[in-house]
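Bit of a strange request maybe. I'm writing a small parser for structure token strings and I need a real example to test against, not something I typed by hand. Could someone generate the tokens for this chain?
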Amino acid sequence: MPTFTRLAAALALCTASLASLSAQAADEARYNQVAVRAEVSQEVAHDLMHVTLYSESQNTDPAKLADEITRTLNSAVEKARKAKGVTVSLGSRNSYPVYDEKGQKITAWRERAEVRLESADFAALSQLSADLMGQLKMAGMNFSIAEKTRKTHEDDLIKQAVDAFKARAQLATDALGGKGYKLVNLSLNSAGFQPPQPIMMRAMSAKGYADAAAVPEIEAGTSRVSVSADGTIEVQMP
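Reply from user aminoacidic:
Good idea to test on real output. This should exercise your parser:
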């Protein structure tokens, strides 16, 4: 057999042996591995209030209708922006035709536009909403957790999740009769906040709101946030 051919065959055999040894080592490295999961959660109070108000009207002239809605929105937004600590933004705006009874001829146009308000000051936003009811109607109200608040609670839960993971890893090691364990990998995940149920309110006239003795007290509620620690440990046997 030529020298070059013998050398190539030897190299091929060596490569195959190394691959076999690597595969064997990988199998051995995974031999005592155990998947471990721990999860912690906490109820967090909502600290942001969201209110959606809207203006809706109908007119046979779409241009006049659009002008009417725009004037109403501008007036409401101007008043809302004077309130301290309240974020104001425009929501959806849609117009659509109104047909006759036969559904063939357009008899008028109807338009609806929203104003969205957000604040951490529930009392201020409640009062502002009441003040704007003379111009707008209530579409809905809900609550959420501010980003800064969410991050603070998540950071605390991450520490708790890691401690819980360590406890479970040690529990698994003891159950298997191991003398200790090595951490192979660890993944931390936040399940996020359960979306709060929106508090829907019926459209109320300005008179109806004015007849109320006082702005109702707000119960913002809570949402649950959870953080999980998923990982793999390698149990070291005696």
